[in-house]
Amino acid sequence: MLGACGNDDQSAANEQDESLQIMTTFYPMYDFTENIVGDEGDVELLVPSGNEPHDYEPSARDIAEITESDAFVYHNENMETWVPEASEGWQENEPAVIEGTEGITLMPGDEEEHDHDHDHGEEGHSHEFDPHTWVSPQMAVKEVESIKDQLVELYPERQEAFETNAENYISQLEDLDDDYTETLESAQQKSFVTQHAAFGYLALDYDLNQVPIAGLSPDQEPSPSRLAELKEYVSDNDINYIYFEENANDKIARTLVDETGVELEVLNPLESLTDEQMDNGEDYISVMEDNLAALEKTTDIAGEEIQPEEGPQEEEHTVYNGYFEDEEVEDRSLSDYAGDWQSVYPLLEDGTLDQVFEYQSKLNQDQSPQEYKEYYETGYQTDVDEIKITDNSINFIVDGENHEYEYEYEGYEILDYEGGNRGVRYNFETQDENAGEYKYVQFSDHSITPTESSHFHIFFGGESQEDLYDQLENWPTYYPEDMTKEEIAQEMMAHE
């Protein structure tokens, strides 16, 4: 037994002495991971320096290098779109896979991002969710913590080293965050115009307004017609600087300066650093300091909020947002809501939705995250943990107890709200004398015609359908039972 214990101790010591081999995808993942790992391993960069990670596709040799590593660190599948398919052929934990944004809820993506509709520039790419978290120091702290936590879980014998290294690095990131906060809180101009819409998180976290502009490339000259459009846009909005992700070539820079009067500045999205930059000691923090200095050239000059080229953004008058005519509404059956559903109320209580409330607070600037949470606390509150629905029955499950009854469709009611939008309640009723508070049921799911529901708000009571129409402050909400907590939070973020 003593010998066995001695062998176990020796094995653990050998594991800790052995240097880890860790492969990372693009530059921020490399820099974050290297600062966490320190002397505990060798961290390598997969996407060659100076290359565009959005468009990167790994070769067979790249895949071999990944699978020979102990761990593989990537950002998320909205950025490295090739990872889910490539990883299907990997053996379990060969390599161990670390997703940088695990536990981080992403903002909705911009389907128009980098999608140049003026017949110029590079091919566009868009994201369902905005992947560019690392461009905000606040979000960088969260990602470093996420990577560190996953490394500790994989290699608990190295916990002390990882946590010490991460703590030191996060301290530097927090100093960077302080610099951004102190510098930008007194900004005289909140809007900045950029050629690459990669700065949404930075803008949100530091109360700025990113205004992406289409049809510009650092290496392709805009057409005369596009130049004329830009000249008018720059003049109308009194724009002094347009930010490029890299230095535009001299001819393009001179053309834009001569024709529009605007100056060009670099705002680096840090998707890649060149070999020369890294050889010169540049890193995430130094480049972000340069970005702050570049932003100051705009924020230090007083000005009105700059509008996107298509003009002021108004709320979309869509059916989902509650804008429709009476004649557009159609009857629906209970089968539209068939399935097994989970309440989102437990997700509010356990903190899963806190990032959603933080996002709403920063975006709307009308309430604190805590005030949003209190509002939804009232809205989502319910003791019905699960609901199971068939074509003709609803089973309300409370503390494991089933309350199942058969229902018939009783028509719909259109409600007009104070904000000018509208809603439709689809009504169902059971004749079961034991139904009690579940006798009358109404569904609302932002749809007004027959369609399979992806989530819904439900109202129920024992008095009458009319009594439920006045229930506007409490709207228990349900998502499919097979969705994870993180998936629900992400889905809710996308529709805020």
Mean pLDDT: 89
Terminal CA distance reads 60 Å
Helix content: 25-40%
Structural class: alpha/beta
The total strand number stands at 17
Tally of contiguous helical segments: 16
Instruction: Output the strand order for the largest sheet.
Output: 12-11-10-9-17-16-15-14-13
Compute the gyration radius: what is it?
27 Å
Question: What does the main sheet amount to?
Answer: 9 strands, antiparallel
β-strand amount = 15-25%
Tell the overall outline.
globular
The low-confidence runs, each spanning 5 or more residues with pLDDT under 50, are 111-125
Describe what is shown at a glance.
With 496 residues, the chain is an alpha/beta fold. The chain has helices spanning 2-17, 27-37, 60-67, 83-87, 137-154, 159-184, 200-205, 224-237, 250-260, 275-279, 284-299, 345-349, 354-364, 369-380, 465-469, 485-494; strands spanning 20-24, 41-45, 71-74, 96-99, 191-194, 209-212, 241-244, 263-266, 339-343, 386-389, 393-398, 401-406, 408-416, 422-429, 440-444, 456-461, 477-480.
Question: Could you characterize the architecture of this molecule?
Answer:
The protein is of the alpha/beta class. It is built from 16 helices and 17 strands. The strands form 3 sheets. Strands 12-11-10-9-17-16-15-14-13 form a 9-stranded antiparallel sheet. Helix 2 packs across helix 6, helix 5 runs antiparallel to helix 6 and helix 13 crosses helix 14. It is globular. The model is unreliable at 111-125 (pLDDT under 50).
